[in-house]
Amino acid sequence: MTDVLWHTWADTYQARPKRTASPNGAAEVAAAVTSAAADGLRVRMVGSGHSFTDVAVTDGLLLSPTSLTGVRSVDPAAGTATVEAGLPLCDFNDALAAHGVALANMGDIAVQTVAGAVQTGTHGTGRDAGGLASQVVGLEIVLADGSVVECSAEREPELFHAARVGLGAFGVVTALTMAVRPAFLLHAREEPMPLEEVLERLPELRADNDHFEFYWFPHTGNTNTKRNNITDGPAQPLSRFKEWLDDDFLSNTLFEGLNRVCRRFPGTVPAVNRVSSRALSARSYTDVSHKVFTSVRDVRFVEMEYAIPAEHLVDVLREARRIVDAGDHRVSFPVEVRFAPADDVWLSTAYGRDSAYVAVHMYKGTPYEAYFADLEAVFTSVGGRPHWGKMHTRDRSYLETVYPRLGDALAVRDRVDPQRRFGNDYLDRVFG
């Protein structure tokens, strides 16, 4: 038994695998999988640990993608780029920018590995541009029998549709081909707005902006809204001081300190949230897309997020506010709300329906179970789909009611991994 202990970023789960390896290329991954099979070990590939669930945990062979970090090709004319699984998104963004291209949409954190982010369904917010998996046009994947397969919508299409958001259940993804577009600027407009005004104006705010999201501060009626729109420029980035003040000191250093106080003295949370939400000032700037999409998040937390049919969002948020106002919960983190168009990725949280994402957080070390349970009941009452990498209590009996293609995906899994070489406790729960 190795002494290596792997854990998630928020330390929600740990793993003590029997064996670890850092393969360099698909051939070495295949050899490691074959060797593990001979010894009866299950296999998981980890990423940066930014999932909060035990999706990557194994007691068998734990593969690290630290040597799978190459950008194999960037073809601006074809609008594609092929990247190895372990490259962090932030480094991938820099490589794409050097070729004058970019991803159409991103989440708000960029330290995850490309494969880890795609496999768990990471998304941003967008009217027309969907999550990362919807931008995948090809996968290189090592199957349980040690074969290396390339799949796309034209080649092994069922494997492709199942494995894009595959949770590592169909094989070890070693490289991804992503759709890219010419590099572009985003004009960011951020401003406070009353929650009820946001909810009343929601159709307009969604329709009139390429990327719209907002943060509601529990125990208050206040939000901070973000509108990001494609622009011809010119670039007008934040000054270095303003960037440090807002995104480093206020959003991380000061926010960390406030959360420590709130964790020790929960009764202060409503007052702190009222002050924090009113302290925010409007700002606008224009910068390259990936710098606007992403932020630095140093404060550790635990998160649950559900994708709900967009038409239910207003009722869900009003019920969430009622629960917070009426209950004993003390929630120091804002509730994040984003949007995505319907996509065709079988296990994507946005499969087949326009979706609103509601993400709830609690500061690390603060009891979160009761708060999450109360809001999870609201999310599931409207057919919500939990983010695969964030805390939830759903199992297959529920998930097969909200994923029309789950049965098709599991049929693919039966074909490519009948012995469940890539299984673990999490997959046993969500896939049966």
Write structural notes for this entry.
The protein is an alpha+beta fold and 432 residues long. It is globular, with a radius of gyration of 21 Å. The relative contact order is 0.14. α4 crosses α12 and α9 runs antiparallel to α10 (369-381). The model has no long low-confidence stretch (mean pLDDT 95). An eight-stranded antiparallel sheet has the order 16-13-15-14-18-19-17-20, sandwiched between helices. It has helices spanning 26-38, 89-98, 114-119, 157-163, 195-207, 240-264, 269-279, 289-293, 313-326, 369-381, 396-402, 406-416, 425-431; strands at residues 6-7, 14-15, 19-21, 43-45, 61-63, 71-75, 80-84, 101-102, 136-142, 148-151, 172-179, 181-182, 185-194, 211-216, 222-231, 283-288, 301-309, 335-340, 355-363, 385-386. The chain contains 13 helices and 20 strands.
Layout of SSEs?
Layout: E1 6-7, E2 14-15, E3 19-21, H1 26-38, E4 43-45, E5 61-63, E6 71-75, E7 80-84, H2 89-98, E8 101-102, H3 114-119, E9 136-142, E10 148-151, H4 157-163, E11 172-179, E12 181-182, E13 185-194, H5 195-207, E14 211-216, E15 222-231, H6 240-264, H7 269-279, E16 283-288, H8 289-293, E17 301-309, H9 313-326, E18 335-340, E19 355-363, H10 369-381, E20 385-386, H11 396-402, H12 406-416, H13 425-431
Parallel strand pairs: 3-5, 4-5
Antiparallel strand pairs: 1-2, 6-7, 7-11, 8-12, 9-10, 9-11, 13-15, 13-16, 14-15, 14-18, 17-19, 17-20, 18-19
